[in-house]
Amino acid sequence: MTTLLLAEHDNASLKDATNRALTAALALGGDVHVLVAGSGCGPAAEAAAKLSGVAKVLVADADGYAHQLAEPVADLIASLAGGYDAIVAPATSAAKNTLPRVAALLDVMQVSDITAVVAPDTFERPIYAGNAIQTVKATDAKKVITVRTSTFAATGEGGSAPVETVAAVADPALSSFVGEAISENDRPELTSAKIIVSGGRALGSAEKFQQVVLPLADRLGAAVGASRAAVDAGYAPNDWQVGQTGKVVAPELYIALGISGAIQHLAGMKDSKIIVAVNKDDEAPIFQVADYGLVGDIFELVPQIVKELG
Amino acid sequence: MKILVPVKRVVDYNVKIRVKPDGSGVDLANVKMSMNPFDEIAVEEALRIKEAGKATEVVVVSIGPAQAQETLRTGLAMGADRGILVQVDGTVEPLAVAKILKAIALEEQPGLIILGKQAIDDDCNQTGQMLAALLGWGQGTFASKVVPAEGTVDVTREIDGGLQTVQLKLPAVVTTDLRLNEPRYASLPNIMKAKKKPLETKSAADYGVDTAPRLTVVKTAEPAGRQAGIKVGSAAELVAKLRQEAGVL
Prior knowledge:
Chain A contains 8 helices and 16 strands. Chain A has 310 residues and is of the alpha/beta class.
């Protein structure tokens, strides 16, 4: 069998999510071809060719793919699908947008957000915010799969796959790019960070969130996360949200500050290796999943932690 | 312009679900059911567009068991004009839902279809994208802002790292994210009025759609549990433990 993996990239470089989804794609057992669709995406394609286990890289380089709009990218993947038994992508916002569109074009029921490959047609995936794990067998001849990247290790370099150009397909002209506002910062990305410091509603304001959470994150070189309550209250931007409806993460160390631990938040971080919770309510559900709990006032304790770290 | 809003009846988001001991699924007996929260946001957005004078009718549609009528009545009580129930028992996967919705869209000819980005039961996040594909329409997923204009709609989308705005040709499909709006509560008089609003009942066969699942559920299990750890007494102790015991610093 042969698998087509849709790469996550920003044209200039390949995202870590691609390496992780590659691990799942290789677990299907067949050859893996990586599709890099973008505009000026040569560097990303070169990076994909170096990944261990990749048999071939396909590059579709056209203006129409610059912003990863779902309609043209889905048409491109569907045009290539005939030669593949499975189409795989990391469950990033771009692929979550595109892949179900591909699945419908191919009349395939997609398997979303898989956390394990049991067999080439059988997968585990979380349902009900991760409160149950379903094992499903896909009966469609072709498989369309998105991969929860936090549960798969990243495949490293070590390959030198040939890079082939594929022709762009006609843009269906259903949508056009107007603009984007990407938050600029030097911190690691949430989904690939080794350490995450997250803040909850107990922070009380956007100012306090900045004053308390960011110094600790900066000291640790950590990514910054937030609970849905903190995002809803406007203390943190939505792309920092960790949880069922935000990002799912599994860092080495997750530090939850003033987060009570609602089911929907736990769904996004309970696979972290070590969880630390600081909360003034010693009954908070977050302590039931925390390896180390510290009960008390975050406004006093967090600066103390920063000081202790030196 | 008419707006179609598909809504799903799901386990209420406050319910802590239990996996059946025999691994056959999730225990749904006597569990509180509600409208999928993202679909509530979709109904609210459709109503706001209508109230702004940019739409003339809001039609809610649900695909599910007879009790999904209650979900439709919730939408009608919020202010939708009429409802369509496509009665199907058992699991209906997103692909089959999208096929039924396509058939309804071809009948109803809406200018916009707004639905939740994902249902909080199966967490699939597929239906809107599949529906857009089957209709050959544009899609604006994970919307945090929707601005309809003449013949187009601008959708601001929540993406990894920030926001992206796209312009879609109408008709189009929009899926909602959390920050799009805060749904209204239905008032008692509106709940009473909703009981008299038209609600049509159909079957999947009426639309010629086969709803047989394509995914076979082999088993459903509890996730691996996580044990509570220890409480430490001070910031100094915490940092020491992280350095020496956990080895993560």
